[in-house]
Automatic annotation (TrEMBL):
<keyword id="KW-0378">Hydrolase</keyword>
<comment type="function">
    <text>DNA-dependent ATPase involved in processing of recombination intermediates, plays a role in repairing DNA breaks. Stimulates the branch migration of RecA-mediated strand transfer reactions, allowing the 3' invading strand to extend heteroduplex DNA faster. Binds ssDNA in the presence of ADP but not other nucleotides, has ATPase activity that is stimulated by ssDNA and various branched DNA structures, but inhibited by SSB. Does not have RecA's homology-searching function.</text>
</comment>
<dbReference type="GO" id="GO:0000725">
    <property type="term" value="P:recombinational repair"/>
</dbReference>
<dbReference type="InterPro" id="IPR020568">
    <property type="entry name" value="Ribosomal_Su5_D2-typ_SF"/>
</dbReference>
<keyword id="KW-0238">DNA-binding</keyword>
<dbReference type="InterPro" id="IPR041166">
    <property type="entry name" value="Rubredoxin_2"/>
</dbReference>
<comment type="function">
    <text>Plays a role in repairing double-strand DNA breaks, probably involving stabilizing or processing branched DNA or blocked replication forks.</text>
</comment>
<keyword id="KW-0227">DNA damage</keyword>
<dbReference type="InterPro" id="IPR003593">
    <property type="entry name" value="AAA+_ATPase"/>
</dbReference>
<keyword id="KW-0863">Zinc-finger</keyword>
<dbReference type="GO" id="GO:0004176">
    <property type="term" value="F:ATP-dependent peptidase activity"/>
</dbReference>
<dbReference type="GO" id="GO:0003684">
    <property type="term" value="F:damaged DNA binding"/>
</dbReference>
<keyword id="KW-0547">Nucleotide-binding</keyword>
<dbReference type="GO" id="GO:0006508">
    <property type="term" value="P:proteolysis"/>
</dbReference>
<keyword id="KW-0067">ATP-binding</keyword>
<dbReference type="Pfam" id="PF18073">
    <property type="entry name" value="Zn_ribbon_LapB"/>
</dbReference>
<dbReference type="GO" id="GO:0004252">
    <property type="term" value="F:serine-type endopeptidase activity"/>
</dbReference>
């Protein structure tokens, strides 16, 4: 006889507990654990019988028949780059982003581009057919090639998919779809898990590509259970400031391409327009300005130039304020401690503000050296030359560590006309040992440094 255990499930992360808790121990949110339907736990005899009767057949890996997957080119170069070359048939793609950031607009543009190659079905549980048509008219999309459906009942959605037999399916959004067989409300952990599993399984069986929109929580992570991200093949995040036209599409997971790949878009009245030169978007000042420094980061398979801005000011408060936009705040305080302890710059008692131009969120450790240079530049009111790129990771001992893909970074800097590149000494030595040596980098002066102190001495002469 099966045992039954009541479960309390966190509506934010999907964590389960057998007793009620005021705070989720996984995501640390308060008041998010709610009772769900009882979970049936099979007895030991039932589990043994299930193992006996459900046999699987294994085959040697070299005898598995390889299947070729079709890729639908969207015609949007930045999007195709993030997807690893296009939208793959029988794949599931999850797109998350803040409300109003443009997820539905981008999906309609994808439908328009793919409709010339495949039959497309756009399903919305949030908007009516007339609302979708109005957006399509505004974007100048051909409406005779896209099928639309406004429905939230998952059983009716499955019936419509079986009837139309589309090659590409768009589901907007998974948090608003419900199954009548589950008593919990739409958006609950059970509803999201069942709907996403059913849609993903259906798409793979029919060899269709499916794009699923997911809502995000206040901290920027996808709402619902973590199993949602494990079910799909690709997870994309749409980033951007609310009042800025720039949008960043980032691949957090991709079974058919590179992870951490990014695409840069600009929101216009006619929809999204790809940015041909992403590095130019993240560079702001055209003259030497105190508190600014240019670095080169890698996002996926591409190198991007990014400008770090810093402002160091005396604090009128007992506890100095540290604010960071686009950079990790913990990393920033670590760099401030290194400057204090290893270089003698007492800025830990000051208010510190940092920003990455363009609103992009960067986690590349190679940005460390440029961040410290911007901090010192602001504190001493001495600018870093606008023709100089600074790149390197800083350890707690004050040493400048090597960074990966240094050749891509140098090529990007030279292409945009920068004449000087401050880099770790380890990377400089590896370039010397390569065929052609340093002669390959004519036109850009390479400055090797081993410590933060050496880098600051070169940049500011101190």
């Amino acid at each position: 006889m099966a045992n039954t255990a009541a479960a309390y499930v966190c509506s934010e992360c999907g964590y389960k507990s057998l007793r009620p808790l005021n705070r989720c121990p996984y995501c640390k949110e308060f008041g998010t654990l709610h009772p769900e339907e009882p979970v049936s736990l099979p007895s030991a005899t039932g589990r043994a019988l299930k193992r006996t009767h459900n046999k699987v057949q294994s085959v040697p890996l070299d005898q598995v028949q390889a299947t070729s997957r079709q890729r639908y080119k969207t015609g949007i170069r930045e999007l195709d780059t993030v997807l690893g070359g296009g939208l793959v048939s029988d794949s599931a793609v999850l797109i998350g982003g803040d409300p109003g950031i443009g997820k539905s607009t981008l999906l309609l543009q994808i439908c328009d581009a793919v409709a010339a190659q495949a039959r497309v079905l756009y399903i919305s549980a949030e908007e009516s057919e007339s609302q979708i048509q109005m957006r399509a008219q505004r974007l100048g999309i051909r409406q005779d090639r896209i099928w639309v459906c406004s429905e939230s009942d998952i059983t009716r959605i499955v019936s419509e998919i079986d009837l139309l037999d589309p090659d590409v399916i768009v589901m907007d959004s998974v948090q608003t779809v419900y199954s009548p067989d589950i008593s919990s409300a739409p958006g609950s952990v059970n509803q999201v898990r069942e709907a996403s599993a059913l849609l993903t399984s259906l798409a793979k069986k029919r060899h269709s590509a499916i794009l699923i929109v997911g809502h995000v929580t206040k901290d920027g992570s996808l709402a619902g259970p973590r199993v949602l991200e494990h079910l799909v093949d690709t997870v994309l995040y749409f980033e951007g400031e609310k009042y800025d036209s720039l949008r960043i599409l980032r691949a957090q997971k991709n079974r058919f391409g590179s992870t951490n790949e990014v695409g840069v878009f600009e929101m216009t009245e006619q929809g999204f327009r790809e940015v041909a030169d992403p590095s130019g978007v993240f560079l702001d000042h055209s003259q030497d300005t105190a508190g600014c420094c240019v670095s080169c980061v890698t996002e996926g398979s591409r190198a991007l130039l990014a400008e770090v801005q810093a402002l160091v000011a005396g604090s009128a408060l007992g506890t100095p304020r540290i604010s960071s936009t686009g950079l990790d705040r913990g990393r920033l305080t670590q760099l401030m401690a290194v400057l204090d302890r290893k270089c003698g710059y007492r800025i830990t008692g000051c208010d510190v503000y940092t920003n990455v131009v363009g609103g992009m969120k960067l986690t590349d450790p190679s940005l460390d050296l440029a961040t410290t240079a911007a901090l010192v530049s602001s504190a001493d009111n001495r600018p870093v030359s606008r023709t100089t790129v600074v790149c390197g990771e800083i350890s707690l001992t004050g040493e400048v560590r090597m960074v990966p893909q240094i050749e891509k970074r140098l090529q990007e800097a030279r292409k945009l006309g920068f004449r000087e590149f401050v880099l770790p000494a380890g990377n400089f030595e590896s370039l010397q040992q390569q065929p052609g040596g340093l002669n390959r980098w004519e036109g850009i002066r390479l400055i090797p440094v081993r410590t933060v102190t050496e880098a600051l001495q070169h940049l500011f002469g101190t």
